[in-house]
Specification:
Chain lengths: 366, 356
């Protein structure tokens, strides 16, 4: 008798435990969702809601026009990386609101996912499928060759296929300008650079940045550090700590979500009274990390490229082949507001920008 | 036949099955809490995994490496070793196959076996470092395998970067076509999916796994050490050399798995920023499969279907792909907490009056 009572109690305890676990985990699941949306600016919050309003507005706007279905596949960084992939997704969302198109994205969990994710969209009749990032080049090529009727586009990599539009940026030109800012504003004459993987795209950032620093401050020393990953904020933080400890007072990162760690390290040091800055990348990162730490940002208008090429498709002007966006095309550059950069520095930046556009200065790309 | 049925309903089979069900149900509860439709989500998951020939082929592609790493972990478990290093052994096997595939010219009937042998050797040796350190210095294998994973990751990246790099890319050159494990005919059959013959190698190795462990004297010794190393030593088994042998075979399984990814799926080796994750998932596969050959294959099927179908869940029901990791984690949790599930099953049986 005693035994059965005990058993019943333990039985109840297990049920209680399972329920408790369920709710705890449910809480986790929920906050996870919020987090998924939280990293994005207000207008993009709640992908679910967006989808609903979007389908609603389509019904009212009449079904005569073809509704375009434009989608993107990210690399492992994901659409909340505060830089590259997020910028692309914001571009696609802008395209959605401007053209009433249907948009969607898939995030790759590993590099084996690139091809199936692209295929998922292509086989579901996407009008244009974006591969976001250098690393997806092989996958885009493969899918494009196997589906000659589908249209694809890729950022940061040149894919030679008759149905693929490739968009690359002259990152070295924009990086040159933030290099000028860093060169003029450093107090220690030591400037850090944190790169993601050592690939040609990131090399362009490094080369342009170094050239810009040297142009205005030949005595300054640029210390280069590659973390080897775009999705590892912990490594970014460690790299930033090393650079700041070496005496660098400004760090420029070109490392996607790894750069979040650079910012975190910078913010901590700033709070402890350190005189340090971070130069952001891809987006105006002061929006995410604040003006206290963000000196300026090297904007790479992935969003505008995505909008532009997608709009070309709608307007019947889709052009396979390579488009290269530099300073002259407003593809790269500084954000409009730079409250931390003095007027005279900005003036010099403008002068250098004009020289680059006019061709007087040719910025090295490697 | 009755023996088979009895076995089907024995606790060692039921526990993983019940755990999987609990995992899926709790996953559904979480989806409900997040205002998603769990039926639609699981429906789209399975539709993605089995919906058409292309996705079916890709699902098999996803399952294949899990069989290899699952076997690797399970084999070590049988000798009482916890091999967390399948990840590193997998990478070393992959890079060895890439070296042979890129640098060597040979007809396919030599090239393929050579690349596979090189990867088996690389993975095996990488594993036996762990076995040696345990045998000679008494270093716990959990520590060494984790450390060797990182060394493997960066060593492989270094080798690719210095010896095999395709200029301007973050990967090696393509391996020679004579070293491919995939064939256009097979791909065509599956609508261009990247399914490859590696899956046959995986199944063959799982037969070997069974044979070595249960049909050879060596296997008997390995398992004896797993049950009780002290008693085995007393019975005259050389425990130390057993550790090295076990880790070699364990690493061999993982290494060949890495080779199959290179030779079958990508045809090149990338510079990895992070672990591919197959080795770590192999631990889950071995746990779910209860360290048996058939169990590992079934566990790999489960994990492969769940991970490959995850993007279908995002596509069809809007559920974040990350949620599938929660489901997998729950399944592993309940398999590991077998006692809890056992209690549940016993309770259920008692109620229905079937006492065994």
């Amino acid at each position: 008798m005693q035994m059965t009572i005990w058993r019943r109690r333990s039985w109840m305890a297990i049920i209680a435990a399972v329920f408790a676990l369920t709710f705890v985990l449910a809480g986790c699941g929920k906050s996870d969702n919020n987090q998924n949306n939280g990293g994005q600016p207000p207008e993009t919050q709640g992908g679910q809601q967006n989808e609903q309003t979007e389908t609603g507005s389509n019904e009212t706007s009449g079904g005569e026009e073809k509704q375009y279905y434009v989608v993107m596949v990210t690399d492992v960084g994901g659409v909340n990386d505060n830089s590259f992939n997020q910028s692309a997704w914001e571009g696609l969302q802008q395209f959605e609101s401007e053209y009433g198109a249907k948009v969607d994205y898939l995030q790759s969990q590993s590099d084996a996912d690139y091809v199936p994710n692209l295929n998922q969209f292509v086989k579901n009749g996407a009008d244009l499928t974006w591969g976001i990032g250098f690393l997806m080049g092989d996958a885009v090529k493969q899918v494009a060759d196997q589906n000659p009727d589908a249209k694809l586009a890729i950022i940061d990599q040149v894919v030679d296929a008759p149905n693929v539009a490739s968009v690359t940026f002259k990152e070295h030109e924009g990086s040159y300008l933030v290099g000028v800012v860093a060169g003029l504003m450093t107090k220690t004459n030591k400037i850090g650079f944190v790169g993601g993987m050592e690939i040609p795209v990131i090399k362009r950032f490094e080369a342009g940045f170094t050239a810009g620093v040297k142009a205005v401050n030949p005595d300054a020393n640029v210390i280069i550090n590659y973390t080897g990953a775009f999705d590892a904020p912990d490594q970014g933080k460690a790299a930033a700590a090393t650079l700041y400890n070496d005496g660098a007072d400004i760090i420029f990162h070109a490392a996607g979500a790894t750069g979040d760690g650079v910012f975190n390290e910078g913010i901590e040091r700033k709070k402890a009274g350190g005189d340090v800055w971070v130069i952001g990348v891809d987006k105006d990162q002061s929006i995410t990390f604040g003006h206290d730490i963000t000196l300026t940002s090297m904007m790479k208008r992935v969003d505008q490229a995505v909008v532009q090429v997608s709009a070309d498709l709608v307007n019947g002007r889709f052009q396979p082949g390579l488009t290269e966006l530099g300073l002259a095309e407003n593809g790269v550059g500084l954000p409009e507001n730079n409250p931390n950069v003095p007027e005279d520095v900005l003036k010099q930046v403008d002068e250098y920008a004009q020289k680059i556009v006019s061709g007087e200065i040719v910025v090295p790309s490697e | 036949m009755t023996g088979f049925v009895k076995r089907l309903f024995s606790e060692s089979t039921l526990i993983p099955v019940v755990s999987i069900l609990i995992g899926l149900i709790l996953g559904a509860v979480i989806m409900l809490a997040g205002h998603y439709n769990p039926f639609l989500a699981y429906g789209s998951l399975f539709a993605k995994a089995f919906g058409d020939m292309y996705n079916f082929g890709e699902t098999i592609r996803q399952i294949t490496p899990y069989i290899f790493t699952g076997l690797a972990v399970a084999f070590a478990f049988r000798t009482g070793l916890f091999n967390i290093g399948a990840e590193g052994q997998f990478i070393m096997g992959a890079v060895a196959a890439a070296c042979v595939g890129v640098l060597l010219d040979a007809p396919w009937f030599l090239h393929v076996p050579l690349a596979l042998a090189a990867s088996a050797l690389a993975g095996g040796l990488w594993g036996s470092i762990v076995g040696y350190l345990k045998a000679a210095r008494g270093v716990h294998e959990v520590i060494t395998t984790i450390m060797l994973n990182w060394i493997a990751l960066h060593a492989a990246n270094y080798i690719v970067r210095t010896a095999l790099l395709e200029k301007g890319m973050a990967r090696s050159k393509y391996i020679q076509e004579s070293a491919w494990l995939s064939s256009p005919g097979l791909s065509e059959l599956f609508d261009h999916a990247r399914i490859h013959y590696g899956v046959l190698i995986a199944l063959a190795l799982s037969v070997l796994f069974y044979y070595v462990l249960w049909k050879t004297r060596q296997g008997y010794e390995l398992r004896a050490v797993g049950f009780n190393p002290d008693a085995s030593e007393y019975a005259g088994i050389n425990v130390k050399s057993t550790f090295v042998k076990t880790m070699f075979i364990s690493g061999l399984f993982a290494g060949v798995g890495g080779a199959c990814e290179v030779m079958g799926v990508f045809h090149y080796q990338t510079i990895n920023a992070a672990f591919p994750g197959y080795g770590l998932m192999g631990i889950a596969v071995a746990l779910i499969g209860r360290n048996t050959a058939v169990g590992v294959v079934l566990g790999a099927v489960l994990i492969g279907v769940l991970t490959y179908g995850a993007s279908g869940m995002k596509f069809g029901a809007g559920v974040p792909e990350e949620l599938i990791h929660v489901v997998i984690a729950l399944v592993i949790f309940f398999v590991a907490a077998g006692g809890m599930v056992e209690l549940l099953i016993r309770r259920f049986r008692k109620k229905n009056g079937t006492v065994h």
